[in-house]
Design a protein that fits this description.
Length: 214
């Protein structure tokens, strides 16, 4: 019996970086994505988005039990939640985020390549039938080629991320790179810890920022 596929183990350089910044070239990946806005700590839209993402991903993962395994299916570990973020207000002097209500975000769950548009549409219909309180049609199947980035593992509360980000930017500049944020290249977080079960000082988050030469 083949072992369950785990992106975190197969692509350790993308999911298990060190705390010291490093340069990485991120290939194109397949995601389920939900767009939204607001403070992730208080926004109902954020909570619903996460529920939709996991609902769809587990529907696909468990499809063999429904007799609906798609061509090329293999069992996989549902990857960690990810988010692309922009907006918000930051006090650079105190290195603190002061207004999270102005955040915009795209929340993501990576998917295996066998998840075609047809498979995704089936999962949306199946989840809508099973959990009518959710809106799986708010999600989209999305290919994202992130490209050249600087990344590091941040350990600690989310509000202390600016300290890690400053180290990332300084390292990138030392290596001859500049930040390359745009409407298609955003501040990127990968959540390796469950904040509901992990003390803030022990939270592990991969932070990734797009860069370019020069």
């Amino acid at each position: 019996m083949a072992p369950t596929f785990d992106f975190k183990k197969v692509e350790k350089h993308l999911y298990q970086p060190k705390r010291e910044p490093e340069i990485v070239d991120v290939p194109e990946m397949l995601f389920i994505a939900v767009d939204g806005a607001g403070d992730p700590n208080t926004s109902p839209a954020y909570e619903r988005a996460v529920q939709v993402l996991y609902g769809l991903s587990y529907t696909i993962k468990m499809s063999p039990k429904r007799g609906q395994a798609p061509p090329g299916y293999f069992d996989f570990v549902v990857p960690p939640l990810e988010g692309l973020w922009w907006g918000g207000e930051i006090d650079l002097e105190r290195m603190a985020i002061t207004d999270k209500s102005t955040f915009s975000w795209t929340m993501l769950l990576r998917q295996p390549e066998f998840v075609t548009p047809e498979v995704f549409a089936w999962a949306q219909e199946a989840l809508a039938e099973k959990k009518p309180e959710l809106d799986p049609f708010s999600a989209r199947l999305w290919r994202y080629a992130e490209g050249l980035c600087v990344q590091a593992l941040h350990v600690g509360p989310y509000d202390e991320e600016p300290e890690t980000i400053c180290r990332m930017h300084a390292y990138a500049a030392e290596q001859g790179y500049r930040m390359d944020m745009s409407e298609t290249r955003r501040h990127h977080e990968i959540y390796l810890s469950d904040p509901r079960k992990t003390a803030p000082e022990k939270l592990k988050t991969v932070i990734r920022h797009p860069i370019a030469k020069g």
